[in-house]
Amino acid sequence: PGETDTLSIDVFGSTIGTGTIVIKAFNVTNPDQYIVDTFKVHLSAQNAIIGNSSIVNGYELRQNYPNPFNPSTVINFSIPKSQKVTLKVYNILGNEVASLINNQKLQTGKYKIDYNAAGISSGIYYYSLTAENFKATRKMILLK
C-alpha cells in the first residue's frame, strides 16, 4: 500500500469471451497490508487484450511493435478512467479490416493487444483507438 509498481500479465486461453482477473498484492513482512485490483480481459480467436497496470497518466496509443510485422504485432494503449473503448484496424482505403475492441467497457489502465493479421495481405494499415473524447490513429506495415 502506498507504493507504485508495474505488473505485466499475459493471458492465454482456449475459450473465446470476457473474464475477470483479481490480483491481491501484499507486503511479505506484513500480509495484513494488501491491495486488490480487478481487470477485465477479453479473448478472441486471433487477438488477446491484456491489462498491464491500473496506473496511468492519461490517454495514450503507442506505436505497434514490431513494425513492419509478419503476421503478429503488439499494440499498447492506456485510458485514464473506466469507459467504453473501440480499437479498429483499417486498410489504406479506410475500409475496416479488423475490430479488436468494439465499444467494450474497460477499466482504467494500460493495455496490450496481440494482433494476428494472418488473414490479410501485405500493405499499409492504420489502427485507431476511440474512447469518449479521445481518438488517435497510427500507421503499421504488414510484410509477408
Can you offer a commentary on this structure?
The structure is a single chain. 0% of the residues lie in helices and 60% in strands. The radius of gyration is 16 Å and the shape is elongated. The termini are far apart. The strands form 3 sheets. Strands 3-8-5-4 form a 4-stranded antiparallel sheet, with no helix packed on it. The protein has no helices and 10 strands. It is an all-beta fold.
Tell me the layout of helices and strands.
Elements: E1 17-27, E2 30-43, E3 48-53, E4 60-61, E5 72-79, E6 83-91, E7 96-106, E8 109-116, E9 123-131, E10 134-142
Antiparallel strand pairs: 1-2, 3-8, 4-5, 5-8, 6-7, 6-9, 9-10
Q: Write down the overall geometry.
A: elongated
Radius of gyration: 16 Å
> Based on helices, strands and strand pairing, what is the structural class?
mainly beta
Number of strands: 10
Largest beta sheet, briefly?
A: 4 strands, antiparallel
Strand/helix succession: EEEEEEEEEE
Helicity range = under 10%
